[in-house]
Task: inverse folding
């Protein structure tokens, strides 16, 4: 047990938002004997940030698909600019395919609890599956405000926008050439005539202008989509920042994968004024152009901001813009939250008490993410001898946990063993190092690759691990946790639903799988990862509390850079753009208290107020 407590637990690098494809990336670092070490000679490896975002691929085809999707979009846009793109209108009477309408509705919250949102998305073309992934990201965010219904745009029927507080359409399929327009004429007309807010993201707004009449569109909205393109002078440029509400947000797209940001052609004098909500900034030329605009009932965002994101990314602007459509009277408020991560029966109780004393001295409520069973099945950190320790077998750790609960902590459950079987998954098989509910490996380029759920994954299997975790807490005399964080932020759709049935809320960066909205079989190889600046009711029907600025990590690992207090503070500053947003991070108690103090002081100086985890649900 002493060896377990003395070892350096695996560190966590925060990923970012992963759309089956290429959301994240990293920095190379060996994980073998020559790896950089955090302390005590043990390798420092990423952990819970892994499940949610970044530039490294989370599926074999993801990055290639996104790059090809962007290239196809630009090719079509060039043809449109040259007046060589033929668009076949949607058939007015064509019903949506049965698979596209069954189960297409997602009720996020009771309608009486807040405004209602209709999310429409594309499903056709070679990358049609991206539409559902992006729609889930939007539906989750809209779940912060009230009820959400999501369905393919092809299933839209006349007058439907009037049934909702606001409608969001995400244009991810560029219609034209061999891909007929799937947007019904009824939606183009309704978007034009309704007084309800319409948020339009990405492609096909030019088809709306053609459908309702270009001059009619200009006279209502003050700009001409048919004369607006993703390239200027034959290039998308180097747009690497977005300015929004006095914050400079990042936009980091891998070389050759940038599909561009639409440059809206404003109509000028004699037409309605257009409010420029956010500005795209070219890092090479310094040129600026509108990234998001609004006129009349239409808010237009010039790209889909859910691919290639980070904790300071331009997606923050979109997350705040939703308030304008769904809760415009929201009062400015900025709250912060910290949780202590990867506490297990192998933790050092002195370190836990040190953290508790510091946080109590600052009157900061906090979460403690506890793994109730520590296991090292191959003896990696125990001289080759297998070792398992339960909380009941670690009375000094339990006493430290009780001390923390008496001094402002809230108990949270962080898996059962935070590892899988007796295999490397992907590191050592030891608690805290590895995934528990997902399989993974490290490729030749030193990226962590997600392989999908374990073979035995099922509702019953996930429930058995949750039940065992509860029993371990009870055996140690600790209360039953009501909050959950998935180890390494990765699990199957079935697992997430099990967690939702057993806990009041999850606090994490989840994965969302294709098939969830459409009601078809869930595809474990196609998913999007997401983190939130506020609490949401997600498409699994669970309240998810935010973790959006990552964690302190002094060393790079697996193609992810180090993350220092200054980085966390910078991300918290960027999130000030969200009018009722949260700066939520986590910290490993085996690190010295000084970086935690520096981070908390910096976040406080920005005007944030630290609160407990359940305060975030409001």
Result:
């Amino acid at each position: 047990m002493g060896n377990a407590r003395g070892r350096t637990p695996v560190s966590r690098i925060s990923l970012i938002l992963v759309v089956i494809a290429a959301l994240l990336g990293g920095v190379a670092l060996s994980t073998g004997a020559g790896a950089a070490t955090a302390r005590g000679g043990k390798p420092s490896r990423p952990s819970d940030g892994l499940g949610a975002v970044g530039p490294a691929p989370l599926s074999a085809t993801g990055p290639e698909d996104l790059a090809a999707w962007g290239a196809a979009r630009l090719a079509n846009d060039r043809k449109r600019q040259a007046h060589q793109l033929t668009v076949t209108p949607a058939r007015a009477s064509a019903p949506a395919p049965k698979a596209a309408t069954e189960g297409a509705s997602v009720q996020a919250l009771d309608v009486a609890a807040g405004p209602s949102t209709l999310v429409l998305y594309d499903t056709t073309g070679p990358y049609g599956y991206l539409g559902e992934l992006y729609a889930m990201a939007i539906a989750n965010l809209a779940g912060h405000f009230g009820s959400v219904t999501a369905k393919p745009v092809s299933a839209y029927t006349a007058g439907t926008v009037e049934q909702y507080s606001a409608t969001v359409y995400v244009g991810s399929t560029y219609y034209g050439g061999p891909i007929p327009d799937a947007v019904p004429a009824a939606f183009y007309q309704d978007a034009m005539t309704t007084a309800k807010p319409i948020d339009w993201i990405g492609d096909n707004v030019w088809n709306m202008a053609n459908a309702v009449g270009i001059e009619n569109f200009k006279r209502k909205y003050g700009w001409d989509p048919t004369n607006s393109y993703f390239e200027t002078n034959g290039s998308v440029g180097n747009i690497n920042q977005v300015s929004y509400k006095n914050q400079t947000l990042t936009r980091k797209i891998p070389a050759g994968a940038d599909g561009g940001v639409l440059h809206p052609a404003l109509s000028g004098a004699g037409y309605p004024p257009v409010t420029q909500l956010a500005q795209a900034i070219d890092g090479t030329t310094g040129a600026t152009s509108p990234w998001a605009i609004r006129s009349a009932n239409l808010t237009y965002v010039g790209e889909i901001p859910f691919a290639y994101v980070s904790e300071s990314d331009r997606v923050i602007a979109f997350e705040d813009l939703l308030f304008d459509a769904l809760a415009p009277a929201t009062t400015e408020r900025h709250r912060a939250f910290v949780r202590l991560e990867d506490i297990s029966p192998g933790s050092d109780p002195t370190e836990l008490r040190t953290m508790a004393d510091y946080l109590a001295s600052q009157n900061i409520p906090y979460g403690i993410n506890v793994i109730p069973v520590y296991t090292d099945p191959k003896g990696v950190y125990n001289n080759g001898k297998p070792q398992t320790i339960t909380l009941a077998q670690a009375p000094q750790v339990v006493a430290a946990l009780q001390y923390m609960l008496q001094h402002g902590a809230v108990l949270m459950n962080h898996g059962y063993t935070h590892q899988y079987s007796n295999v490397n998954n992907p590191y050592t098989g030891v608690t805290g190092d590895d995934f528990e509910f997902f399989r993974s490996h490290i490729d030749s380029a030193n990226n962590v690759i997600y392989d999908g759920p374990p073979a035995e994954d099922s509702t019953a299997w996930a429930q058995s691990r949750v039940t065992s975790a509860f029993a371990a807490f009870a055996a140690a005399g600790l209360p039953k946790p009501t909050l959950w964080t998935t180890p390494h932020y990765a699990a199957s759709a079935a697992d997430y639903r099990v967690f939702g049935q057993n806990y009041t809320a999850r606090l994490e960066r989840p994965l969302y799988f294709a098939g969830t909205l459409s009601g078809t079989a869930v595809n474990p190889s196609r998913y999007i990862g997401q983190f939130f600046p506020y609490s949401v009711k997600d498409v699994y029907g669970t309240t998810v509390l935010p973790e959006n600025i990552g964690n302190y990590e002094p060393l790079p690992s697996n193609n992810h850079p180090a993350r220092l207090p200054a980085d966390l503070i910078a991300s918290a500053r960027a999130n000030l753009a969200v009018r009722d947003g949260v700066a939520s991070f986590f910290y490993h108690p085996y690190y010295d208290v000084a970086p935690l103090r520096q981070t908390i002081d910096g976040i406080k100086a920005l005007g944030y107020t630290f609160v407990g985890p359940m305060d975030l649900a409001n």
